[in-house]
Amino acid sequence: MKLELISFKLCPFAQRAIIILNTQKIDFEITYINPMDPPDWFKAISPTGQVPLLKVDDQIVFESSVITEFINDISSTSIHPEDVITKANNRSWIAFSSSIFDDLFGLVTGDEDKFNASKTSLFAKLEKLENAKGDGTFFNGESFNMIDAALAPIFMRLAWMNEFTDNALSISEFKTLSAWSDAILAIKEVQTSVIDGIDDVYYSNIEGREGHLSTLLVDEEY
After folding, report:
1. Is 11 a catalytic site residue?
2. Residue 222 has pLDDT above 60, yes or no
3. Catalytic residue among 3, 6, 11, 18
4. Which residues contact 113 (CB under 8 A, 6 or more apart)?
5. With contact defined as beta carbons under 8 Å apart, do 34 and 8 qualify?
6. Given this model, what pLDDT does residue 221 score?
7. For the chain, which domains are there?
8. Residue 54's pLDDT band (cuts 50, 70, 90)
9. Cα–Cα separations (whole angstroms), residue 106 to 101, 181, 213
10. Phi, psi for residue 31 in degrees, rounded to 5
11. The pTM is what?
């Protein structure tokens, strides 16, 4: 079975899939496209015109949550917890966490009012996650599960924003969440889920958006 993931370099939903592919030790190829000018061949095979897209031999799987579940289905072991209620609870929080990307987008692109509104919304959601997380290193304890993979792109982007802005979005008030973030970002399968120099790309993305966040950037080389 040949797997080819199609996405763009900063896509957080593709990163979720890559983390699971890495964790499950599944071979795959990745093709990056320009989301502002997608090639005709991509338009021809993508029902929604969105990424990520997974080619499985000559078949197409689309929608990021479906892609991650498919990867788990073809794996020798499941990255979900075994208990069905815990699994359902995890899936609920994964769906909840996806709305955080709207807040991150608002932080990067918005003017000062939008930035502040997005920050308020983001921190309200982080507080709920702080209260929902169980004991242990990861969300469910000591096992790295799909919900941890789902949060990794969020924690990574927050870490970049804080590095670039001298902690304008520090999550240190959330002690449990901060430790969880540190544990996730230390995992090799997470660290290798992005291209080399991705922090440079993200920094340039913030600059190019010319939102309020770009005015908070520390003048350093990235």
Report:
1. yes
2. no
3. 11
4. none
5. yes
6. 58
7. 3-73 (3.40.30.10), 84-216 (1.20.1050.10)
8. very high
9. 9, 21, 10
10. -120, 125
11. 0.96
Distance CA 129, CA 60 (A): 33
The three-state secondary structure class of 189 is helix
Q: For the sheet containing 3-7, what is the strand order?
A: 29-32, 3-7, 53-56, 59-62
**In whole angstroms, what is the distance from residue 212 CA to residue 112 CA?**
5
Q: Which two tokens stand for residue 218?
A: 């520390």
Per-residue model confidence (pLDDT) at position 23 = 98
Average pLDDT, the chain: 97
The candidate with the shortest Cα–Cα distance to 147, out of 96, 193, 189, is 96
DSSP bridge partners of 62: 53
Task: Tell me the pLDDT tens digit for each residue of 67-87.
Answer: 999 999 999 999 999 999 999
Q: Which own/partner pairs from 207-214 qualify as long-range (CB within 8 Å, at least 24 positions apart)?
A: 209/108, 209/109, 211/107, 211/108, 211/109, 211/110, 211/111, 211/114, 211/115, 212/110, 212/111, 212/112, 212/114, 212/115, 213/107, 213/108, 213/110, 213/115, 213/161, 213/165, 213/168
What are the strands, taking DSSP E only, across 83-196?
none
Distances in whole angstroms, Cα of residue 13 to Cα of each of 51, 118, 212, 219: 8, 20, 25, 29
Helices 175-185 & 146-165, crossing angle to 10 degrees? 100
Are 62 and 17 in contact, with CB atoms under 8 Å apart? Answer: no
Cβ atoms of 125 and 100 within 8 Å: the answer is: yes
CA distance 146 to 20: 7
The average pLDDT across 208-213 equals 97
